[in-house]
Specification:
This protein has helices spanning about 10-20, 25-35, 40-45, 50-55, 65-85, 100, 135-150, 160-175, 205-210, 230-240, 255-265, 280-295, 305, 310-315, 325-330, and strands spanning about 85-90, 110-115, 125, 155, 185-190, 215-220, 245, 270-275, 320. It is α/β, with parallel strands linked by helices and about 350 residues long.
Amino acid sequence: MQHILTDETDEILVLTLSVARIPFLDFNQKIKLLKNLDNPQSLALQSIEDIYKLLQCQKVSRAYWNGSDNLRMAKAEAFQCKRLGIKTLLYNDPLYPEVLRQIADPPFLLFVRGNENLPGGPNVSVVGTRRLSTAGREAAKSFAYEAVMDGSNVVSGLAYGADACAHQGALDAFYDNPGREGLGRTIAVLPCAIDEIVPYQNKRLAAQILQSGGCIVSEYAPGTPTQKRNFVARNRIVAGLSQATVVIEAPNGSGALITADFALEEGRDVFFHQVAFGQAAESISQAVKSGLEKDFATGRVSKFKLENCPERFLKEGAPVIKDYKDFCVALTEMPGMRTTGPIQGELFT
């Protein structure tokens, strides 16, 4: 199928997508390469040796390059972006979120469906386990509801459990207050191509996010196959879009704790909701831990994943919050002003 792209804007988009598609280049190398190219055809004519010579760096072993195939795929991606109304935010675009640009490994290119102004904030990231307790579900929805009412956007990953509940709470605030000005929205970060939804069962929720004026973002172009490593990579964007991440519930080895680690590595705030230490959450945690212990015994999971738990973050000073209002108070407190949960015997001072 031939994809018809007509103007100079299309040419720039195809060039950007052509560079973004190169898997053996890192963020800084892509920036340098893009600055040294005038059009996508010039890149297609480069050999892999030419590319590395232009970048003045050593060739990566087993790196593969086919310029004509890359150009063909970039044109197909550009066509889909135009057809579906997908916006692209290059790292130097004024709408590219500054807080995301500051992380150690920012996406070279962000794809956005919906309101492309939202990723710039103000945002708060809400994450947690897929195996959420009833109390955890209510906590995620309530926290997101109040955040949106206060004008903050709620960022999460559109996964089952805490993510879906956080998005739903944000949507409830929007639909409960028609016409009200100053409301936040919700932002879903995908681990897949921007023209897909993973998990598929949350497709209706994704549609509601767009209908409410929210947005869906991904670093993966239309048609990109979903790979297992994308899920961890997605977590750095969830953490990177906000100055603070709130963990609702997270048993040992939870992906939400990876997001929390990303946030701390970037100097962002991490908070745990008190429901993470309730009886229902503890019951789920014990069941998950038992399964991890069996997997560890057979070499299927690492010792770090087995031992990674919310208590580790509490020992390192992560505050525990009751709700959104308490979260706002905690943001203004000096470190160490509140006790941090079961480690010290009490949840709150």
